[in-house]
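Quick illustration, no need to memorize.
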Amino acid sequence: MDGNSTSQASKRLATIVAVLTFCAGSVSAQHSHAAGVWTNEPAGANVVVDCNFSSTPGACGILDAYSSAEVASDSSAPLSPSGVLKSTLRAGNSAGGMQLNFATPKPNNREMFMGIIWRTNPEFQGRPNSNKLFFLRGPQANGVWIFGNSALVNGSAPLIFGHNTGGGLLDNSHACSADLGLLCFPNVGPGLLTRGVWTKIEAYVKSSTTNTSRDGIVRWWINGVLVGNYTNLNYGGTAGINEWVWSETWDGGVNPLPTVDWNHFIDHLHISIPNGGSGSDIPPGPPAQPTLRSITVP
């Protein structure tokens, strides 16, 4: 399972953290949507990003690494219509899509939470060997959530976590599948994603004390329902977690080539640091009262 190496991630972080730190005071340019939406966010978490993508990622302090993200209009967006972020891999191309990076103001967080409203286009074909979505990672951990590990069956496949960290740095073979416990499958529910359908995904990571202490936590939810729950992982270690990344293409290649355009759409992104105190809105004001459509929230 390839992907961006930990060393590459660290180098990239060093070059972008200054830019993103400059934006840290304005990363939440709209009211927080935490109330009633991100139902699994730990209480008291400090919100560092709450972005409705009515404008470019940069307006929320997010780096669009290749200037490839497109702001589009989609009235079906369930949380904050009509502005959505659109990523495209063109038919017949071997590379494309977007990469987004957000480095947290604090460099070595012990915990991190993310909520995202996402869908593909209905025609999305997907790579037979898996489709990267997002990372919650740090200098010694490169973990990624992927859409399926085989060809999509009837348009659906599980959402899987992979520690994706090379060099033998992490070994989770006591808890997960494949080489050195590389793949952690849903272990509570089926955890299926379906192409073309707006879906709320939430993820939470707590770093292990060390790279061998087996006390790290990784959990993820689909539409508010817990589907993956691992409480004995090696992940993050003393370096912690400090970056959210969206990146779709495995080492810049796609095989076989897509025969139609592949799109990812993001309606909303929410990132917070648990145990960091209360988040504040910019501008100040009470939390918004959103209405989610086409997503079941308990």
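The chain has one domain: 6-273.
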